[in-house]
Structure formats: C-alpha cells, structure tokens
C-alpha cells in the first residue's frame, strides 16, 4: 500500500480526524510519539524525498521552536498549580509547567505540519478535486472552476515572464529604487489581468460548447473509487493516535485540555 494510491478524500478525512483529536491533548509526550509515527508512515508508505520534505518542513520547525521558547519564558502558571523552578536567569524563570506547555505546543505544531505534508506530498491535486466531486458531492461548477484555475497557474507564470521581457525591451522597467519596482509590478498587473480574463472567457465558451451545464447527474471519464485499503489507511492513522495516547497514559504523562 502506497499513500499515493489512497483516495484523497479518505486521506483528508484521516488528517482532519487526527488534528481534531490532537487538539484535545495537552501533554508533550502524546504529540511527540504521534509525530514520530506519522514520520514513519510518510517515509515508509509515501516514499517522499527527504530533501524536498525538509525544505517544506523547516519553516514549521522554526514556528514550533518559537512556540516553545516564548511559552517557556513568558508562561504564567495558575496560582493553584505548584511549579518547580528549573532555571533562573535574572528575571527569566523557567519552570516545569512552562517547559511542559511549551513542548506540548511545539510538538503539536510539528505533528500538524507533518500531517499536512503527508497529504500534500502524496496527493495529486486533480485526483483530489475529482474525489471531492464524486465522493463528497462537490458541485461540478466549483470543482471544474478550481481545476481550470489550477491549470492556468503555469500559463500565468509564462505570461508574466513574457510581459516582463516586453517591458524590458521597451525600456519600461528602467526606474531604480523601491518605487520603481512597485510601479513596474503595477504595470504588469493590468496586462496580466486582461490575459487571464481572455483565457477564462475562452475556457467558459469551450466548456459550454461541449455541453457542460454543471449538473450533478453526469458521467466521469476518470473515476475515483473507495477501496478496502483506503479504509485500512483511515483505521491505521486513527490507530496511531490511540497508540501514542496509550503510551502516554502508561508513562503517566497524559494530560487533556480540560486538566489545565
């Protein structure tokens, strides 16, 4: 079983369930164990390139470190909770309570980011839209509108490059400084918008000429189905959460959001 073959709607449902379940957990051990398990699933079943994964994961790592650092340094524990001072550097006091809450928030961010990357890097966007249309009953007008916009993104990039080269030949972008760069970008927006409107109008005429009415009662050339291995993946991901929860309970570190 590979993650690329899993139904995108089922995969998205698994990610949403894990995110919701993890939102009610507020100890550092449970999200840390779940993070390790999600990493294992991503690289074993997803066959994701490590270099590409690290490139997208690094900003989330910085965000998680910021959560940990600010919570550890500036947390104010409730009066009824007894804390133990771990480190004191002048006015900065690091307690066990602040460290626990900071690590819980940081590992939660890491877990959320790994779940998001698991979905993004193993899912074909076109297949995901088709799955939303066929399994989740998304209106075809919205689905095919999203697909058309997704297909237009590379074309708009090429169109922008052509406009910039045309401006450079005619000497339009010779102004220097920050103001010159802003004016150059503004001058690219209008022709780019006009080109996008022309392409959208041509696409709409082409779809209407081929009988596209946006009705739900239609057939599909590419059919996306739900198989047994899709449900197995959903049960696997939910099971990973309960495994991490069980280990945290055994270690005596589990703490729900209601126990804060």
UniProtKB/TrEMBL annotation:
It is a multi-pass membrane protein. Its main location: membrane. Pfam families: CbiQ. Keywords: Membrane, Transmembrane, Transmembrane helix. It is found in: Membrane. The chain crosses the membrane at residues 9-26, 55-77, 97-120, 231-254. This is Energy-coupling factor transport system permease protein. It comes from Lederbergia wuyishanensis.
């Amino acid at each position: 079983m590979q993650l690329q073959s899993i139904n995108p709607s089922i995969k998205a449902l698994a990610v949403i369930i894990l995110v919701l379940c993890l939102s009610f957990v507020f100890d550092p051990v449970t999200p840390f164990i779940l993070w390790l398990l999600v990493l294992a699933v991503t690289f074993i079943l997803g066959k994701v390139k490590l270099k590409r994964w690290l490139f997208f994961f690094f900003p989330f790592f910085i965000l998680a470190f910021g959560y940990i650092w600010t919570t550890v340094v500036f947390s104010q524990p409730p009066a009824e909770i007894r804390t133990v001072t771990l480190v004191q550097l002048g006015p900065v006091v690091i307690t066990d309570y602040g460290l626990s809450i900071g690590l819980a928030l940081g590992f939660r961010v890491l877990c959320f980011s790994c779940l998001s990357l698991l979905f993004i890097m193993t899912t074909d966007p076109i297949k995901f839209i088709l799955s939303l249309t066929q399994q989740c009953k998304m209106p075809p007008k919205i689905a095919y509108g999203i697909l058309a916009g997704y297909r237009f993104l590379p074309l708009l990039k090429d169109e922008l490059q052509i406009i910039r080269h045309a401006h450079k030949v005619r000497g339009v972008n010779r102004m220097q400084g920050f103001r010159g760069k802003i004016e150059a970008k503004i001058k690219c927006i209008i022709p780019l918008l006009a080109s996008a409107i022309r392409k959208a109008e041509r696409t709409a005429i082409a779809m209407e000429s081929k009988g596209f009415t946006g009705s739900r009662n239609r057939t599909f050339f590419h059919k996306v189905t739900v198989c047994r291995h899709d449900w197995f993946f959903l049960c696997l991901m939910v099971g990973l959460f309960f495994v991490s929860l069980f280990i945290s309970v055994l270690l005596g570190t589990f703490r729900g959001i209601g126990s804060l």
